[in-house]
């Protein structure tokens, strides 16, 4: 089936839906049994979609897990209360004291904080690496390297990683590879075809799509699924059945939403390339992006999230730019139907293995489902405020 068709049918096996269209919402903590034989069967098969205890999941959870596996190509999927929990759950499933982790330098900021503030305290060392290192990552591997973590594109600076080159090296050294696949959602990149062992997503973003649920997923290939499943369970990770149900609803419209996000974002990105204030637009679907060839090879499309770098700009100018928006709202996260904007003045503070090549402020946009002409008009007014603020504020 094509992806659009898969999105409609994934997770809708008759064992979950019965004679209705959507899998019903099943909330439970205790699962009760009519006989010792049933209890024993559930205990033996508790990792195989058999209700055993609420934290193991109900049919609502199983339906979502099946859908994610079908869409991404994994053998099993664990659910978490948010994307950051999915990242930590996946890392802690395959790391222990004394191990070494290779973490991409463009990682999502909470992932970096986890490495520096939590994993370090557990005796796990982290080396950050250039996202564009490719097969040369072999030179960073140590005898105790157990995991390589990737994020492509980076969710702030949008470097594209050569995923197949890195996973090939990892397999040669029996190292687990974990990819944060949130930007691509389950349908724009097929991580297991690229050699990834575990694919992590913040389902809070495009899967849910409406900015009202926190949810994470981690799917794994057949070799690594049992360890991911058991460690995540033992660490106490679980997700609400209500949130799983909402995510299933979001999946059904994911493709049509992404197509509109992509179309509008590309229109805005091309418009931004013509602005005299802009140094560069960081969108991997643009031909001038350094990772465009990798994007075309490994991804089937783009979405609404990208950044651009200004040639210069004071704090006051940036505040003038983003505080007077009509349609773009200031806020973290992305993937909902609304447009969002954030700004970062100093990117080098978030790097340790690479030198950020730009000195101007970075502005990240999530292009929502509003009319693109209204969004461009909103940005044009923002640039007017930015330029006006420069007249009264000397550039430092």
Automatic annotation (TrEMBL):
Gene3D superfamilies (UniProt xref): Aspartate Aminotransferase, domain 1 (3.90.1150.10), Type I PLP-dependent aspartate aminotransferase-like (Major domain) (3.40.640.10)
Cofactors required: pyridoxal 5'-phosphate
Lineage top rank: taxon: Bacteria
Pathway: Amino-acid biosynthesis; L-methionine biosynthesis via de novo pathway; L-homocysteine from L-cystathionine: step 1/1
Pfam families: Cys_Met_Meta_PP
EC number: 4.4.1.13
Keyword rRNA processing in annotation: no
Reaction catalyzed: an S-substituted L-cysteine + H2O = a thiol + pyruvate + NH4(+); L,L-cystathionine + H2O = L-homocysteine + pyruvate + NH4(+)
Example of a GO MF term: cysteine-S-conjugate beta-lyase activity
NCBIfam families given in the database record: cysta_beta_ly_B (TIGR01324), PRK09028.1 (NF006538)
The name this protein goes by in its record: Cystathionine beta-lyase
């Amino acid at each position: 089936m094509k992806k659009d068709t898969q999105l409609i049918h994934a997770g809708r096996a008759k064992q979950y839906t019965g004679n209705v269209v959507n899998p019903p919402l099943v909330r439970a903590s205790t699962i009760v049994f009519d006989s010792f034989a049933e209890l024993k069967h559930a205990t033996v098969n508790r990792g195989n979609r058999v209700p055993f205890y609420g934290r193991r999941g109900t049919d609502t959870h199983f339906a979502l897990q099946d859908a994610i596996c079908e869409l991404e190509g994994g053998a099993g999927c664990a659910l978490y209360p948010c994307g950051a929990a999915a990242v930590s759950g996946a890392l802690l499933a395959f790391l222990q004291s004394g191990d070494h982790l290779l973490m991409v330098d463009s990682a999502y900021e909470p992932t970096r904080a986890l490495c520096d503030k939590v994993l370090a305290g557990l005796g796990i060392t982290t080396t950050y690496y250039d996202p564009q290192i490719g097969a040369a990552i072999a030179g960073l591997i140590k005898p105790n390297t157990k995991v390589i973590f990737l994020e492509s594109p980076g969710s702030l600076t949008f470097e594209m990683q050569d995923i197949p080159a890195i996973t090939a090296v990892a397999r040669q050294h029996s190292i687990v590879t974990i990819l944060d696949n949130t930007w691509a959602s389950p349908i724009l990149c097929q991580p297991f075809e690229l050699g990834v062992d575990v694919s992590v997503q913040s389902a809070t973003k495009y899967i849910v799509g409406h900015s009202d649920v926190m949810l994470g997923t981690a799917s794994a290939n057949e070799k690594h699924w049992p360890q991911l499943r058991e460690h995540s369970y033992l660490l106490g990770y679980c997700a609400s059945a209500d949130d799983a149900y909402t995510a299933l609803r979001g999946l059904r419209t994911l493709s049509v939403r992404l197509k509109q996000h992509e179309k509008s974002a590309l229109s805005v990105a091309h418009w931004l390339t013509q602005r005299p204030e802009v140094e560069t637009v960081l969108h991997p679907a643009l031909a001038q992006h350094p990772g465009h060839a990798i994007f075309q090879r490994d991804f089937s499309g783009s979405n609404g999230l990208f950044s651009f770098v200004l040639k210069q700009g004071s704090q006051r100018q940036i505040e003038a730019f983003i505080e007077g928006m009509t349609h773009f709202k200031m806020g973290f996260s992305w993937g909902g139907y609304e447009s969002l904007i954030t700004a970062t003045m100093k990117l080098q503070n978030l790097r340790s293995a690479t030198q950020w090549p730009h000195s101007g402020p970075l502005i990240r946009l999530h292009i929502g489902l509003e009319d693109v002409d209204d969004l461009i008009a909103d940005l044009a007014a923002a640039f007017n405020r930015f330029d006006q603020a420069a007249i009264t504020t000397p550039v430092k």
